[in-house]
Amino acid sequence: MSNGLTITEKIFSRASGRPVRAGDFVMASIDRAMAHDITGPLAVEGFYEIMRDEKEKKVWDPEKIIILFDHQVPADSLNAARNHILLRKFAREQGIKHFYDLHEGICHQVMPEKGHVLPGQLIVGSDSHTCAYGALGAFGTGIGSTDMAAVFALGKLWFRVPESMRFEVNGKLGDRVYSKDIILKLIGDVGADGARYKACEYAGEAIRRLDVSQRMTISNMAIEMGGKAGIIEPDGKTEKYVRERSPGYRLDEGLKSDEDAEYAEVREYDVTGMPPQVACPHNVDNVVDIDKIEGKRIDQVFLGSCTNGRFEDLRIAAEVMDGRPVAKGVRMIVIPASHTEYMKALRAGLIEEFVSAGALVESPCCGPCMGGSFGLLGPGEVGLSTSNRNFRGRQGSPDALVYLCSPATAAASAVKGKIADPRSV
Ligand SMILES: CC(C)[C@H](C(=O)O)[C@@H](O)C(=O)O
Ligand code: SF4
């Protein structure tokens, strides 16, 4: 065995207070824990169950728990309203310092944006896309509500330190081809469980060249190939992003995988000349080049979600639309991922452009991404979405079809009224 460590092994060694390696079982201290309106109520219930015999029923650290509302926002059912009431009460009683009510946005956007994600941290969230925080060099991972209950109580959780799978992505992305196309390509290649329980590590010049917003898209979708995390080694861009939110933060030069670190697998890619990618129904790994699916009719385009609802995504889409209206017979729903992103888009005039084009712009939330709220697809309808999952029934009817793509492809398709290549509209 070599002496080198992966970034994941370094993070777990710090979090568990001893040198550990992939495969070791550890009890790790959690740096931040996030729960939202769907999974939070069950975690709260579990927490009180655990604390049943304690006199003081207090969480381990009210400053390290983040609670927010995003999935059913504004409350779209009585059940959602009750969940919101329960979590507001819990946050008040426990003195949860970082509680965001329903105006703030989607968890995976709000967490980094508000400075709750630092490189090298071990962060858990009761949401599967918590791997998104790997974009900043944190080990973020999704856990269930009952595990979250234990974290609320103890601030610790056991893990088997995952092996790492390295994706060396080189070459240069072409015009109107983005990080979403890279991650769809990788998932299509590896398969939905090809990286099961592995820490996916994205490296190479094509990844280094991406801005933080685009890195978030790639890290966000590690779970779609079974990854436990989706880490990108922090660099100057990471440092700048983090410092703007956590002044005084300094990049730790040692926070990267050693050259002789051991990997379960290393895969190499060259994205030069790669066309836009689309994931076809009903699996995220059912990925094709755009020319295989171009011309397919669509009923709805959804531009948003924690994967691709940032200001940069909206700007790309507006550029591609270039003042043209949404095609007749197609509806377009645009949802900025957070209040901050919404304000940026508003100030830049993007919201006016979308509204003038005939799109529906909604307040920050998950929206149709999970089909639990508004914007559902009916039987037989076809949706094109910038989100991360296209499972049967995910956005409404089990008889609807969902295709996944980049914001540029979504925008090109919205103006054309059918799936279109953003390079040729
Ligand atoms: C509701 C939540 C538990 C779920 C997740 O874990 O990812 C949702 O965010 C999703 O995208 O499917
Ligand atoms: S936007 Fe979609 S993927 Fe992201 S947290 Fe919400 S439901 Fe999950």
Features:
425 residues; alpha/beta; Aconitase, domain 3; 2 domains; five-stranded parallel sheet; 14 helices; 18 strands; 31% helix; 18% strand; globular; binds 3-isopropylmalic acid; binds iron/sulfur cluster; HAcnase/IPMdehydase_lsu_prok; metal ion binding; IPM_dehydratase_rel_enz
What is the CATH class of the largest domain?
Answer: Alpha Beta
Q: Low-confidence parts, pLDDT < 50 over ≥5 residues? A: none
Bound molecule kinds, no repeats: 3-isopropylmalic acid, iron/sulfur cluster
How many strands, what sense, and barrel or not for the largest sheet? 5 strands, parallel
Radius of gyration: 21 Å
Q: Structural class, please?
A: alpha/beta
Overview of the molecule:
The chain has 425 residues and is of the alpha/beta class. It has 2 domains: 7-254 and 261-269, 2-Layer Sandwich (Aconitase, domain 3), CATH 3.30.499.10; 277-419, Aconitase, domain 3 (2-Layer Sandwich). The protein has 14 helices and 18 strands. The protein has helices at residues 7-16, 40-50, 78-94, 107-113, 145-154, 179-190, 205-208, 212-220, 236-245, 305-308, 311-321, 339-347, 350-356, 407-416; strands spanning 25-29, 32-36, 65-68, 98-100, 122-125, 139-142, 156-160, 164-170, 199-203, 229-232, 265-270, 277-279, 287-289, 300-303, 331-334, 360-361, 382-385, 401-404. The strands form 5 sheets. Strands 4-3-2-5-6 form a 5-stranded parallel sheet. Helix 6 packs parallel to helix 8 (212-220) and helix 11 (311-321) packs parallel to helix 14 (407-416). It binds 3-isopropylmalic acid and iron/sulfur cluster.
